[in-house]
Amino acid sequence: MYKIKTLNKISPTGLDRFGEDYNLDDENKEPDAIVLRSFKMHDYEFGNNLKAIARAGAGVNNIPLDVCSEKGIVVFNTPGANANAVKELVVASLFLTSRDITSGVGWVQSIKDSDDVVSLVEKNKSNFAGCEIKGKTLGVIGLGAIGAMVANSALDLGMRVKGYDPYLSVDGAWLLSNRVKKTTSLDKIFEKSDYITIHVPLLESTKNMIDKDSLRKCKDGVKIINFSRGGLVNNEDIIKAIEDKKVSSYITDFPQKELLGIKGIIPVPHLGASTQESEENCAIMAVDEIKEFLENGNIVNSVNFPNASMPRSPIGKRLVIANKNIPRMIESITSILANNDINILNMLNRSRGDIAYNIININGNIEDQLADEIEKIDEVIFARLIK
Predict the structure, then answer these.
(1) How far is CA 369 from CA 145, 306, 335, 348, 385, in A?
(2) Where are the beta strands (DSSP E) in the chain?
(3) Do the two domains 1-81+275-305 and 308-387 of this chain adopt the same fold?
(4) Using CB atoms within 10 A of its CB, is residue 88 exposed (0-12), middle (13-18) or buried (19+)?
(5) Are 78 and 54 in contact (CB under 8 A)?
(6) What is residue 274's predicted lDDT score, i.e. its pLDDT?
(7) What count of other Cβ atoms lies within 10 Å of the Cβ of residue 33?
(8) Is 375 in a helix, a strand, or coil?
(9) Which residues contact 319 (CB under 8 A, 6 or more apart)?
């Protein structure tokens, strides 16, 4: 029986998919796998039995990937599972940044003790006038699952859309309307857009990608939308741009103290994926990924190991092996199989950076200690026999 531990509240709709062969207990000391959302694992003590971690969400900044890779722990995320929830908030943000709705609502609440609310509203409503989004240009930075959905929805609302993503996959391109004008220049997004929305991971290469230099290239009065990661936007620079009227509105799902109380900045309390549907979708995908790995050795949506999937053979067993991606490793592995009179029915080898992963369907007189023998090979990270 596999032991599973959760480090955050995870939707029961997902957890129920584990079934009777799994023991779910938050007190498990040596779990086979962990499911979490935002729990910060950088100071977490990893048990020797831990094989996999699934993040019920897209970002994995809360997980020390280098440590996990070194220990042979496969880390999964759930790309696209919360895409619609985030997309809907981004679309709402197009209106919130255009029509000064939040300020208007706040002002109306402030006059609740007035004797003539109707007259005051008519007299002051022009203070909250805005613009329409139809015909305006939206620049979308990052055209993954969320970015593509935002781009397509903006087109449906009558906007012109420019997209930038130097890493756009073939699958991603299929999701994107052919009416999105793709550009290979990030500067073109800054120069031509009335609205800019960011949908990229937070990496060293993307940190502070919206700063004083990029904002200087933007149109006066540009509106910035950030539902990806707070570190993508330099807070000091965006505040200065708001004060100088270079940016007319900035809406972020990652409020910090310095951003509060500034007219033109709309802080949202990290609601991007906070819907029942999104949490269920993420939990379902995370659980399915763990089950597929533990039961079949297949890796789908890993962020630190190569993705690799192969059908099971109707006979025999399966051996999965992770090793350093160096020459002659397969030769060393297959030599041990041959010495044990084990036949290879099918084999898949995939690599990612300095890690290689092998799925081998085998048949013969297979002893339980076979994986232990293979793990003794220098540069093998782990070996596991799946019956």
Answers:
(1) 43, 26, 16, 22, 9
(2) 2-6, 22-24, 33-36, 52-55, 74-76, 137-141, 160-164, 181-183, 195-198, 222-226, 247-252, 265-267, 317-324, 343-352, 355-363, 380-386
(3) no
(4) middle
(5) yes
(6) 85
(7) 28
(8) helix
(9) 358, 359, 360, 362, 370, 371, 374, 383, 384, 385, 386
Topology of domain 1-81+275-305 in CATH is Rossmann fold (3.40.50)
The dotted CATH code for 83-267 is 3.40.50.720
pLDDT tens-digit series, residues 336-386: 999 999 999 999 999 999 999 999 999 998 998 999 999 999 999 999 999
One DSSP character per residue, 105-146 reads HHHHHHTTT-S-HHHHHHHHGGGG-----TT-EEEEE--SHH
Tokens of 72: 């042979």
Q: From 250, 288, 380, select the one nearest 371 (Cα to Cα).
A: 380
Residue 173: band (very low, low, confident or very high) from pLDDT cuts 50, 70, 90: confident
Q: Percentage helix, strand, coil, to 5, in the chain?
A: 35, 25, 40
